[in-house]
Structures are given as C-alpha cells and as structure tokens.
Amino acid sequence: MSETMRALVCHEITEDLSGVAIAEKPRPEPGPGEVRLRVMAASINFPDILICQGKYQLKLEPPFTPGMDMAGTVDAVGEGVDTVRPGDAVAGGARFGAFAQYALAPAASLRSKPEAMGFAEAAAYPAAYLTAYVSLVRRAALQPGETLLVHGASGGVGLAAVDVGRLLGATVIATGGSDEKLARVKAYGADHVINVAGGFREPVKELTGGRGADVIYDPVGGDVFDESTRCMAFNGRLLIIGFTSGRIASINTNIPLIKGFSLVGVRAGEYGRQFPDKGRENVAAIWEWAREGRTRPYIHAELPLERVLDGYRMLQNREVVGKVVIRPQA
Length: 330
Hints:
Layout: E1 4-10, E2 20-26, E3 34-43, H1 46-53, E4 69-77, E5 89-93, E6 102-106, E7 110-112, H2 119-124, H3 126-139, E8 147-150, H4 156-167, E9 171-176, H5 179-188, E10 192-195, H6 201-207, E11 213-218, H7 222-228, E12 232-240, H8 254-259, E13 262-265, H9 268-274, H10 276-292, E14 299-304, H11 308-316, E15 323-327
Parallel strand pairs: 8-9, 8-11, 9-10, 11-12, 12-13, 14-15
Antiparallel strand pairs: 1-2, 3-4, 3-6, 3-15, 4-5, 5-7
Helix pairs in contact: 3-4, 3-10, 9-10
C-alpha cells in the first residue's frame, strides 16, 4: 500500500474556489524521466487560481493538484534519470502538482538550487522570471536605453519584469494602484512609479519627452491595455502577458497602424515547447542570473499548506508585493 501525503486538491471547477480543499492522497511514484521532490516550498502564480476556476488555457479534469513552481530535495528518481540523485536540493516547475508534500517533475525541468537562494526564493523564481525573460529578451528585444513600462508591477510577474528590465539597461516605469506598494517597487529598482488611479498616459508621455514607452509589459489587460495603446512610442512593442483585470481587451487595428507599434503575445512555456533549443537557453539564462546573484524574487508571505486558499485570496485582492510561497512541510 502506497504512503499518503497531504495536498491541495481541486475536486470541482468552481468560480468561488469552493471545490478546492486539502486532502490525503497517495504519494506519487516517478515514471521514466521523472523526479519525486519532497516539496519544501511552492509559489502561487495567478494561473494556479484560474485553472481551478476553469479559466486557464490548460484545462485539467478534476481531481487534480495545482501548483507549477517548487523547490525541494530529491526524494526518488525514475528510470533513466542520472542528472540528479536523492538528497539534491533543486528547483523548477511542472505543469501542475506542486501544492503537496511530494510532487513529480520532469528531471529536465529541474535545476540545482542556487546556494544564495533559500527554498522559498527558489520556488518563487521560475515562472515569473521565465515570463519576464521570454517577454523582454525574446519577444520584445528590449535594448539598453529604451523605456519599459511595466503594469501590475507589484505582482510576481510584474516585479520580475522590473528586475529584468533594470538588468537589461532599460529605463523602467512601473505602475500600480497603491502608493505603498509602488514605494516598494521603486526601492526594488524601478526608475519611476505611477499610480494608475489618476491615469498613466500623460505621466508616461511627460517622462519620455512625448515619445511614449518603447515596450509595455501588460499582465493586466482591460482598461490598462486600452490606455497603453495611447502612450506607445513609434516602433514600440505592447506585450500581452495576461488578463488579471478579468477583461480581455480588444482594439481597432487602425490604432497600431497609425502609431506604428506591434502587439506581441507572450506564453513563455509555449515558446519553449515551440522552440526547444531556445527554451533550454531561456531556462539556463535565468538560473545563471540567479547563481550570479543578479536577480532575486521578493517574498511577500510564507504560508503553510493548509492556508493555500488564503494565499489565493491575497492574490485576488491585490494584496501581494512579489510572491506568496507555500511551505508544505510546515
């Protein structure tokens, strides 16, 4: 009889997340090419909420355990795995399963945990920084000296974009809806911050001498997307990351025609699946930055497994700066 573990299980797809609860389930066995981790930390990403509401592009049939990013120690390895061994401290991602005491991941998706990072930071790193890297390096080709406007800058993917934009030599303008959170974002490396409550089009124009932003990183959508189209520089790139506002925006195509900017969709994981060699380069690049201490995620809170839904609500209520991390072994 297999041993059991505690895990967050989505038993039913529901808007209010009432179909999600902590449950006992069998500890998974690694198959060929897989690794079983004793999960020391797992971070919450917005898609972890959407997938339980049936709103994410990846559709899973209940019951399933959500959670993409994790860090821990190797507990067992499947057939053909020789890149890690039991006891190794690693971090990385899977498409689901991280919100549990034990989880499976493809061995190829794991990297040695940087010595400078704790388990919480390592778990908070992969999805946010891979999204920022694919967005700014691969899709936007952000250049030193260009202006990068980051929306939702206090969130996990937003703060990662601020960090990566700074590293790439851009002038970073960050937006958000809270002066207190924006103060933290500025301390983290943004050159300028704007509270969107008063609108951001005119402040962006003023900060850029009337040109507008060269690259806009938009995980928010809705009204933020609409206003972004009004402060793009000619030859700019408007990156569509997601829709945390809840509204998928639309646009009249004469606007990008007249203003000469591009709309660029970003799905970091799919980019790696479409271009495997570049995907491996992307993952290697962000973890090299981490090992060098050039990037570091910000941890807003660490919660035990039993409080995953509290973490979900913190993200939904826009209370978070950076990332919320779950500690399944606590």
